[in-house]
Amino acid sequence: VPLKKLIVLARRRMKAERERYEKLYGIGDHFDPEHFDIVLDTTHLTEEEVFEIILDVVEIMIDIDNMTTLA
């Protein structure tokens, strides 16, 4: 498949995804990091490293939630 055709197809798919997320969830740009609690580049991480990082983040978030409810 020629590169230009792949680019056109990718753009169409991204546009369709944006429209679907807007319709279903009211989110205009679902790639915006503001919509996420954590963004983790797993490119060079093992599954175990990813698991440990996520577990640490969840524990920190639970501690923060507990602190704010106790205050």
Task: Outline the structure in words.
- With 71 residues, this protein is an all-alpha fold.
- Helix content is 66%, strand content 0%.
- The protein is built from 2 helices and no strands.
- It has helices spanning 3-25, 47-70.
- The radius of gyration is 18 Å and the shape is flat.
- The mean pLDDT is 89.
Helix/strand layout:
Blueprint: H1 3-25, H2 47-70
Counting DSSP H or I runs of 4 or more residues, the number of helices is 2
The fraction of residues assigned to DSSP E strands is under 5%
In whole angstroms, the N-to-C terminal distance is 59 Å
General form: flat
Kindly name the structural category.
Answer: mainly alpha
Q: How many β-strand runs?
A: 0
Largest sheet: none
Which H/E pattern describes the elements? HH
Task: Estimate the helix proportion, in percent.
Answer: 55-70%
Residue runs with pLDDT of under 50 for 5 or more positions: none
Mean pLDDT: 89
Rg from C-alpha positions? Answer: 18 Å
Key features?
single chain, mainly alpha, 71 residues
Short description:
The protein is mostly helical. It is built from two helices and no strands.
